[in-house]
Fold these 4 entries.
Entry 1:
Amino acid sequence: MRIAAFMLLSFFMAACVVGDKTEEADYEIIKVGDKVPKFEISDKSGNLFTSPDDITVPAKTTLIVFFSPTCIHCKVEMPSIQYIVDQTAGDPDLQVLNMSVNTEGLAEYWQQSGFTMNYCIDAGRRVYSFFAKQYVPRFYIVGADGIVKWVFVGETDMSKEQFLAKFRSFR
C-alpha cells in the first residue's frame, strides 16, 4: 500500500518542476524577446481570449500562467496570482490569463482555495505546446507590444507583493 501511495505521489510530482528551470533549456519554445504565439482559448465562462489581439489591441501587459491543480509547486504560487488579480482589477493596462493544463481536481481546488480569479482549461495542452514542452508552474509576462519580457518556471521565491511589483514593472 505504501509503495502504491509513493508511486502515485511520484507521478503527480513528475508534472511539476523542482527549482528554477530557466529559458535556456531545450524544453523551452518561447523565450524572452520572442513574440507571443497566436492562439485562442476560452475561459470557464466561455469568453474567448485571442493572442496576440487581446494583448496588443488594446495594449495590455499580460501575465500568462500555466498551472496544474495537482502540482504542489503550482499550489504554492496560485495564491500570489489571486493577489495579483485582485490588486490589478480595473487596471486597463494589465491582465492575467490563467491556464490549467489538466482538469483533475480543478473545480474542487479552486473552491477550497477560495479563488475568484478566472481560468481557462487548456485541454490536451494545445496552447501550452506553443510555449514549452514540459514543467509547470510556468509564468510569462508579455508586454503590450506582444513581446515576451520575462519567463519563469517553478516556484518564484518572491512574495506576492514582489511578484506584483515585477508584473507592474513591465507596464
Entry 2:
Amino acid sequence: MKRKQATPHRGISPLHVTLPKQWCFLLLGLVMLSASPLCSQPTLPASPTDLLTDAEYILGFAEALFNDGDYYRAVTEYKRFLFFHASDARAGHVQLQIGRAYLRARQWDEARKAFEALAQQHADPEIRAEAAYLIGETSFLQQRYTQAIAELRPVAERYGQTPVGQRARHL
C-alpha cells in the first residue's frame, strides 16, 4: 500500500490560528480590566513633606541636640531652619537659641555677636530685650563682672518690671 504524503496547507502558516470575533472582544476586555487598577490608584500629593526641610522636624531635632548638649550641631540645625524658613514667626527665637548654644559651648565671641546683632536690629522688642540681657549674661559667665553690670544696668532700667528687666536686676 502506498502511503499518502501529507501536503502542507497552502498560504497559511502552521502557527496561524483563527479565533472567532467573540474571543477577540473577550481578550480585549480582559486586557482593559487588568490595566484598570493602574489607572484607578490614588494620586500622590504633589510635594510630599521633605523631612530635611520641614520646619517642625528641623526645630525638633535642633532642640533635641541642644538639650543633649550637642551645641555645635544644634547651631547647624538652627541655621538650616533659618535658611529654609527665614520669614517664619519663630525665626527670632531661633536666632536667640543660636546665641544660647554658643554661650553654652563657651564660644563667647560668637554668642556676643549673635546677641548684639539681635539687640540692635531685630524688629520684635521682646527679642531685642532678651538679646540685650544675654549680652550681659555672657559677660557675667566670662567672669567680667564690671562689664556685666555695665551691660545689665541699662537693661534693668529700660525694661523695668518686665521679666527681662527683673532678671537683669537679679543677675
Entry 3:
Amino acid sequence: MSDSGRFTLSYLAGISSYFDLHYFNGLLAIIYLSLTVALLVVLFDLKSKLSMFVLALLYVGFPTISGVLAYMFTADGYLLANLLTTLAVFLLFKWDKKLWGLIGSIILVYIAIGTYQANLTYFITLVVVLFIRENLVEDKIQWKKYFLSVVSVVMGLLAYVLHFKIYEKIH
C-alpha cells in the first residue's frame, strides 16, 4: 500500500488484525462510524434528536461510506482515518488548549492523509461547512480557528509529502 502513498493504512487496519475477519472489521467500522457521527454532532452543536438522526442517516448512507464497507478487509482502517480527520477538526474548533489542539490536529491530518488522500478534502469540507454555519448562525467569525485549520492542513500535508519523498528515494 505504500506505493500508492497509503503509509498508515496497514497500521490502522492492523488494529483488528492482518487477517480477513469480516465480523470483527465490521464491528470496528461501526464503532468508528458511531464515534465520527458523535463528533459531528458536537462540532455542529446539534440539539434536536431529529437533526442528530438525520445527520447519522446521511453520513452512514452516503455512497462513499457504504462503498468502503464493500471492502471489509480495509473498512476499519479507512473509517478510523475518517474518525481521525473528524477528531482533527474537533481539536481545532472545540479543544480549549489551542497549541496542543493544533499539534494533535497536524499529526492526525498526517495520519489520515497517509491512510487515504481523500481525507484531505474531507477535512477541508468540514472546515468550510463550519465556516458557513458560523457565518449564518453567529455574528462574529473567529478567524483564528480558520487560520489554525490552514496551518494544520499545510503542516500535515507537508509531513505527508516529505514522508512520501523519503520513501521514493529509499525504494
Entry 4:
Amino acid sequence: MPAAKSDSTCRGPLDVAPAWMRQVLFVAGIYNLCWGLFAIAAPLTIFRWAGFDPLPLYPEIWQCVGMVVGVYGIGYLLAANRPFIHWPIVLVGLLGKVFGPIGFLIAVSQGRLPSSLGWTILTNDLIWWIPFAMILWEAAKAHQATVHRMSVPPPQRLLDPTGRMMSQLGA
C-alpha cells in the first residue's frame, strides 16, 4: 500500500487562508461564546445598563438569544480552522449581523426599544461586517480558482490505429 501524502502536499487553494482570517474567526468565536454565556448567566444586566424601567418580564427570551449567540461562537471557532471550506458558517453569521441591526432600527423607530441599547449593535454586529465580507469574497475567489482548475480537460491520449498509445510505440 502506498504511503499517505503528508498534509503539506495535499493542500489546495481552499486550505490556504491568510492567518488574519483564522484570527478574526477565532476572536469572533471567543467573543460570541463570552457574550452568549453572559446573556445566559445575567440576562437582565444589559437591560439595566441600558436604563430599562421596567425590566423585561421574560429574561428567558434573552437567555435564548444568548444560547444562539454562543452557538454562533462555536461555528466561528470551527470555521477558523479552514475559512474557505466553512464559508457557509461565515455567511450565516454575516446575515445575522446585517439583519440584527435592521431589526433593532425597526424596533427603535417604533418605540419598542430604546436607542441606548444601540452600543450592543456596534460590538455584536457592525465591527464584523467588513472582515466577514472580506473572508466571503476571498472564499468565493478560492472556490472559483478550484472550479476553474478542475474544469480543465485532461490531455488527450494519442492512440495509433492498433489502440496503442503513441508514447508506447518506441517500446
